[in-house]
Amino acid sequence: MGEIDVVVTWVNAECPVWKEARCEFAPEQPRHRFSPPEAPEAEVDLCLSLLVEHLPWIRRIWLVTMRPQVPSCLSRVELKERVHVVHHDEFFPCTASLPTFSSKTIEANLWNIQGLAEKFVYFNDDMYVLRPLPETAFFRSDRPVAWLSKAPPREWAHDSSEYRRAWSNLRNLFPHAKLLHHFPYALTKTNLRAAAARFPDRWTELCGERVRTVRDIPPVGAAINLGVAEGRGVREKLPKALFRGAIVKPDTVKALVGKDLSFLCVNRQPFDKTRAFCDAVRAHFVSGATAADEASATT
User: Based on the structure, what is the number of domains in the chain?
Assistant: First the structure.
């Protein structure tokens, strides 16, 4: 099977350096879901803990973030030994576009991370692995597993959302493109390079952006769709998983135990409930959670 890494993207939007840069370079950008103000490290801490718990075969976990950010959770031995922090300026070929506040720009450059394995699984910090999974859940031999959804609706071509316009743009360039579910993405550096070569003008423009625009294409979506179409990826049915806008009550999280879910993703989780939610998930899905953790998650 060969070595497989994980890449997790994260940012602490409460960091003074990040806030100052955003005010200078992206003052008009809408507030996307960056990090919970009261608990900016809660989600990434939980994401990393679950990765270490349930995917022990991972060679290395790369945590991608803006300099000088390093989450305090990495002081714990079990994470410090497995997680390597890499800042944007360490792998962007052209640092003139930094700082960037566009997740798509960051994604378009991930394959430039020095030392990254050819095969890797890409996580946002709000994607959680709830049970042990084998390598074959993400790769069939050297081919990444693709969990594709439906085609981007044609009316998205006139939408004001940068997210929807990006998918519409990709469909115009690659008519067979399908949307991705908001779950971990199995990728190869080869497939990302192939997408960059297939759509060079869009990719070059994308790599130099500081904020999302309606001209973007989704780089991960382009790589996965192109890989499947050209035989370098395999499309499979989405595993048993859960995607919800708001799972905040500890009793709700407890009810997920025993349902054999592979993933839990919550990219619309209310910020004011983040800490309680993460505590509840940790108490029920991370072995060795302390009694205090479990008590806080059930009160």
Answer: 2
